[in-house]
Design goal:
alpha/beta, 6 helices
C-alpha cells in the first residue's frame, strides 16, 4: 500500500482509505459481520485511514468500528471522524451544529463509542452558517491542546472557509467529492488547498459506481 502525507502538516496515511458510512446507513441494507470482515480485510491490506461520522447510523458506525478494531494496536489505524450533522429520530437531516460546546460534546461521545483516548482527525461535516468557522476550529484546537485530537480536517467547504479556518489552526485535509466526472473543485478549491498545504481526501472517486462499469445503459 502506498503511503502519503496528508497535507503539509498532517500524518502519513495509506493512499486509499475506507469510508464506513454504508456499513450503517444511507446506502441500503448492510451485514454487520460482513462489515467487520471488510474493515479487517482493509487493515490487513495496508489501509490505515478509516472514515466515519458520529451521525452515521446515529452512532452505530462508530460502535461497529470499535468492534472491528478490538484487539488491534491503536496506532495501527488513523480514525477520521465527522461531527455536527443533526438528525431527528426518523433520520431526517435538520441542520448542522458547529458551536464550540457542540464540538466538545460530540467529541466526548465519539471517544466513548469508539473506545479510544483520542481521534486522529476530527472535522465538521459541513460549515454551520450560524457559527463563524473560526469559533468551530478554535474549539477543535483546544481539544488538540488537551490531547483528545491530533489533527483538524474540513469537509465540503469552499476557498474562503478554508482560508479562514487555516488562519486559526493548520488544516490537515479537506474531505470532498472528486472524480473524473465531478471536477468542480479544480476551479478554486483545489488551488487553495495546494497553496495552503491542505491535503485532499477525495470521496466518490468512481462517482458512486457511474464510471466503475457497474451500471449499464438503460439501468435505473
Amino acid at each position: 500500500m502506498i503511503a502519503r502525507k496528508l497535507g503539509a502538516n498532517g500524518p502519513v496515511v495509506s493512499a486509499i482509505g475506507l469510508g464506513c458510512m454504508g456499513m450503517s446507513d444511507l446506502y441500503g441494507a448492510s451485514d454487520r459481520a460482513e462489515s467487520v470482515a471488510t474493515i479487517h480485510a482493509a487493515l490487513d491490506a495496508g489501509v490505515t485511514l478509516l472514515d466515519t461520522g458520529d451521525f452515521y447510523g446515529m452512532g452505530d458506525n462508530e460502535m461497529l468500528i470499535a468492534e472491528a478494531l478490538r484487539g488491534r494496536p491503536r496506532d495501527a489505524v488513523f480514525l477520521s471522524v465527522k461531527f455536527g450533522a443533526q438528525r431527528d429520530p426518523r433520520g431526517n437531516w435538520i441542520g448542522f451544529d458547529g458551536r464550540p460546546s457542540a464540538v466538545k460534546t460530540s467529541l466526548a461521545y465519539s471517544l466513548k463509542r469508539l473506545g479510544v483516548d483520542y481521534l486522529d482527525i476530527y472535522r465538521p461535516a459541513r460549515r454551520d452558517p450560524n457559527v463563524p468557522i473560526e469559533e468551530t476550529v478554535g474549539a477543535m484546537a483546544d481539544m488538540i491542546k488537551a490531547g483528545y485530537v491530533r489533527y483538524i480536517g474540513l469537509s465540503e467547504v469552499g476557498p474562503e472557509t478554508i482560508r479562514r479556518a487555516a488562519a486559526v489552526h493548520p488544516i490537515a485535509d479537506l474531505q470532498i467529492e472528486y472524480s473524473l466526472i465531478s471536477r468542480g473543485i479544480e476551479n478554486s478549491i483545489l488551488p487553495t488547498c495546494r497553496e495552503l498545504g491542505v491535503g485532499l481526501t477525495a470521496y466518490g472517486v468512481l462517482s458512486r459506481g457511474l464510471i466503475s462499469g457497474h451500471w449499464r445503459a438503460g439501468a435505473q
